[in-house]
Design goal:
By secondary structure, the protein is an alpha/beta fold. A hairpin with a 4-residue loop joins strand 2 and strand 3. Helix 4 crosses helix 10, helix 7 packs parallel to helix 8 and helix 12 crosses helix 13.
């Protein structure tokens, strides 16, 4: 193992300027000193010393299709030379065609007519979805959401995000959500199968509607105080927790019985991360609203949005000007989004992602057999988790994972004569989970390389 890395003189000048001129509120420095990066391609980024790092988190799943993807980059370049900008109140071909593509896909999958509304990113699109939901429910401001859930850091989004630390300084926008336990089987009650635990969690939620004294339901008028349930089908920041396959269909039955909308937050898990366009597709339910962002443009241009059922968003109930952003539906973003849809439709993209995910998960399971500090591994498509614990295989060990992340960023591991670093993301309720979101274009040799680098980090952790 190498000593603590020291920033180069050139980097130190930049870091000194950052310390003086940049807000620390829009970033997190996971290592000291922070790396400064200069280029990227495929599954790799390079720092200013031209040290390569294999990236297994891909900008929190915003770059699903690999850094500097030539096809998507070219779509952006071509749009720059034709219609690079236009005010969002004016129409352009890309907005209409991308909306059609998303809405027709939803119609084919869910049998529901709907419309698409764009904004500049995930959190902003969550805000728009809250407006749609509140408007459709005659102004109800109360929402259900999950413990461990993350929906963004704008005022409205943070009110339905379970971490108080995102709200602590700013108060509340409307009301804080009622946070419901998520079926996190690895840390759930013992003695239940994963499916039994999923049913148990639904039954506990359904208790809220047994009588008026459970606090959310008026049986005399058949009205619920809550407008919607915001779900991440697979929890993202919460640690890539994958629920039982029976969970959402049983939950949706309870919601439908009581007039509560289901909003599926696909910002991190959408656009093929789990082997399907939307992660909710795995669970055989029909969402009322879908929120998307991040990988729609492969990180090239901020663009997100929502799809909502026709009854919730048609012009009579949600008329022109109901909510708006200057840069919404911008032509650069919609051009890349359209090209992404075309690119992924030319092959069985879902099957490819599922095959790679199965291969990667099998590699993680082999590491789990050899390293007692791996408490749990799981995955769906190329959304994978590896929970780091003490040697009892269960007690969360944040310190060890922090150590592994720092070691990975030293860029001093060697595989087949190549010196490399490894970029990992930290998530989970106890910040002890490696949340793996590699490029969906990752090759099998690169998966093998990632597993070898993880093995080196685990060996270092066991020996420290």
């Amino acid at each position: 193992m190498s000593d603590i890395r020291i920033a180069t003189a050139e980097d130190q000048v930049l870091l000194d300027k950052e310390a003086k001129y940049c807000s620390y509120g829009d970033t997190v420095h996971y290592i000291d000193p922070p790396r400064i990066f200069s280029r990227c391609e495929g599954s790799y980024v390079w720092d200013t010393e031209d040290q390569a790092y294999l990236d297994l988190q891909m900008w929190y799943s915003a770059v699903n299709f690999g850094y500097a993807n030539p096809r998507l980059n070219n779509a952006l370049k071509q749009q720059i030379d034709t219609l690079p900008q236009i005010a969002s109140q004016y129409l352009h071909k890309g907005k209409i065609e991308l909306s059609e593509m998303i809405a027709v896909d939803a119609k084919n999958k869910f049998g529901l007519d709907g419309r698409v509304h764009f904004n500049v990113g995930g959190s902003q699109s969550i805000e728009d979805s809250l407006k749609v939901v509140r408007n459709a429910s005659n102004g109800k401001s109360l929402m259900f959401a999950f413990e461990g859930g993350y929906h963004g850091r704008t005022l409205g989004a943070s009110s339905i995000t379970s971490s108080f630390r995102y709200r602590r300084r700013y108060g509340h926008f409307g009301e804080r959500a009622n946070f419901i336990p998520f079926p996190y089987h690895f840390r759930g009650p013992k003695g239940m199968t994963k499916e039994e635990y999923g049913s148990h969690c639904v039954q506990q939620f359904a208790r809220l509607f047994e009588t008026e004294y459970n606090g959310v339901w008026d049986p005399k008028t058949n009205q619920c105080e809550y407008a919607a349930f915001y779900v991440e089908p697979i929890q993202g920041t919460g640690g890539y927790v994958i629920p039982p396959m029976n969970f959402y269909s049983e939950l949706k039955q309870v919601l439908d019985q009581h007039g509560i909308l289901m909003v599926s937050d696909e910002i991190q898990m959408g656009f093929w991360r789990t082997g399907k366009l939307w992660s909710i597709e795995h669970f055989d339910v029909k969402p009322d609203v879908i929120v998307f962002g991040k990988a729609l443009t492969n990180g090239l241009n901020p663009l997100g949005g929502i799809w909502a059922r026709e009854e919730l968003i048609n012009p009579k109930i949600f008329p022109p000007g109901s909510t708006h952003s200057t840069f919404a539906s911008n032509p650069l973003g919609t051009a890349v989004g359209l090209e992404m849809f075309k690119m992924t439709s030319e092959v069985d993209y879902g099957a490819m992602v599922m095959a790679k995910g199965k291969y990667f998960l099998e590699g993680l399971q082999e590491l789990q057999k050899r390293f007692p500090i791996i408490g749990d591994v799981d995955g769906l498509g190329l959304a994978l988790r590896c929970e780091i614990c003490t040697t009892d295989g269960f007690t969360p060990d944040k310190a060890t994972l922090d150590y592994m992340v720092e070691e990975g960023m030293k860029g001093d591991m060697v595989v087949d004569g190549q010196k490399l670093g490894l970029i990992l993301d930290v998530g989970g309720y106890y910040k002890n989970v490696i949340t793996l979101a590699p490029s969906l274009e990752i090759s099998y040799p690169e998966i093998d390389l990632g597993l070898k680098l993880l093995e080196q980090l685990l060996n270092r952790a066991m020996k420290r």
